[in-house]
Design goal:
CATH architecture of the largest domain: 3-Layer(aba) Sandwich
Number of helices: 14
CATH class of the largest domain: Alpha Beta
Oligomer: single chain
Order of helices and strands: EHEHEHEEHEHHEHEHEHEHEHEHHH
Shape: globular
Distance between the termini: 23 Å
Helix content: 40-55%
Strand content: 5-15%
């Protein structure tokens, strides 16, 4: 039997408004262009229109499946692999089927090992189930993976250390960063400033979530203390979409006496996000742990001042171009501004740095080369 499809990409369970979704959203057009009608894409979620058009234009095949539970990918995807005689399957978002049909190779992008950390204890049931599922799959299936891709050197080193994979040939070629198109878009929608009653330069901005590693409660407390220096400033938070979650944090805001100074946004288009990044006093990113931290490079591209946690992954991606604070002190932002000394860095230097590490054209070639290498194609 000959190969009907050289490559299958599973988008099962991927949300395109999250970091893992952003990752594959940028690479998918290049994979479609390379593999064309030899590419089969499996998805159970709504695909952005621009990606759908790219899939159709390159004559790749899209199969929509109804996965009411993430665990169903364990059975549905292997069945498709076997039926279509797929040569290699690529799983870009941490999980993959531990059922592996004969004569197929698995390439998996592992974004982080946060779900394996003992001190990561999600409080929401959905997050608890997600942690258990991802941990179980990776522990049980790590030896089924033919090629591991990571989004950072930190994650690569964490994997080697945790799973004691020193016999595998893991090196620089296994690190494929979360990419960015290095074009500062002119398209910007400043109407969000008016709708949120914001003045340029008089608000802070952050992108966060409810997971414990996002450290949002700490960020709120640090901002509350910062109000002593900037009493009229506001904090805008994108990423907390659920009214239930917003209600939970509103009680924290009341206790900190900052309820009228914090604004939660619903989903906002990229044009409005760029406006917030360009007009904020600074972009705050105070996570305890991240697999990558894509908002940092988005903020740098918009020439924002970035104040981030002093953690290993942020040092890896932010380099000397962002400011770091220790997140063991709720006065970290106060202390930062008391001792603030602006970096004398030109925007051209920032662009040069971003291009050297996160250029989509370079990184897509790296990913495609790794896929071919796994197939045994030189």
């Amino acid at each position: 039997m000959t190969d009907r499809y050289t490559l299958l990409i599973s988008l099962a369970g991927i949300r395109f408004d999250r970091g893992m979704g952003e990752y594959i959203k940028h690479y998918l057009p290049y994979l479609c262009e390379e593999f064309k009608n030899r590419l089969l894409i499996v998805s159970n979620t709504s695909i952005p229109q621009e990606l759908h058009e790219i899939i159709i234009n390159n004559k790749s095949k899209l199969i929509k499946v109804n996965l009411t539970s993430p665990i169903l990918e364990q059975f549905v995807v292997p069945a498709i692999i076997k039926h279509e005689n797929v040569r290699l399957a690529y799983f870009p978002a941490n999980t993959f089927p531990i059922i592996k049909p004969n004569n197929v190779k698995y390439v998996v992008t592992i974004h982080d090992l946060i779900f394996l950390m003992k001190d990561y204890n999600p409080k929401i049931l959905k997050q608890k189930l997600g942690k258990f599922y991802r941990a179980f799959i990776l522990k049980q299936g790590i030896n089924k993976i033919d090629t591991i891709i990571t989004v950072s050197y930190k994650t690569l080193h964490d994997i080697i250390k945790y799973f004691k994979l020193r016999n595998l040939n893991l090196d620089d070629s296994n690190v494929v960063y979360n990419p960015i198109k290095l074009i500062r878009e002119d398209k910007i929608d400043n109407s969000i400033l008016q709708s949120l009653n914001l003045k340029p330069g008089e608000f802070f901005y952050t992108i966060s979530g409810t997971a414990d590693n996002k450290n949002l409660e700490f960020c709120l407390k640090a901002f509350a203390n910062l109000k002593r220096i900037f009493p009229n400033f506001k904090l805008v938070i994108s990423g907390i979409f659920s009214p239930h979650d917003q209600q939970k944090y509103n009680s924290i805001l009341k206790s900190l006496s900052i309820k009228n100074s914090v604004i939660f946004t619903s989903y906002i288009p990229e044009e409005q996000k760029r406006s917030l990044l360009r007009n904020c006093k600074a972009f705050l990113f105070l996570s305890k742990e991240e697999g990558f931290g894509r908002p940092i490079i988005e903020a740098l591209l918009e020439n924002s001042i970035v104040i981030a946690s002093d953690i290993e992954i942020f040092r890896e991606i932010g380099g000397e171009f962002i400011y770091y604070v220790k997140i063991d002190d709720e006065n970290c932002l106060v202390n930062f501004y008391i001792n603030y000394k602006p970096k004398e860095i030109k925007y051209e230097a920032i662009l040069t740095y971003l291009k050297s590490k996160f250029d989509i054209n370079v990184l897509s070639n790296k990913l495609i080369a790794k896929i071919y290498e796994t197939m045994g194609v030189k």
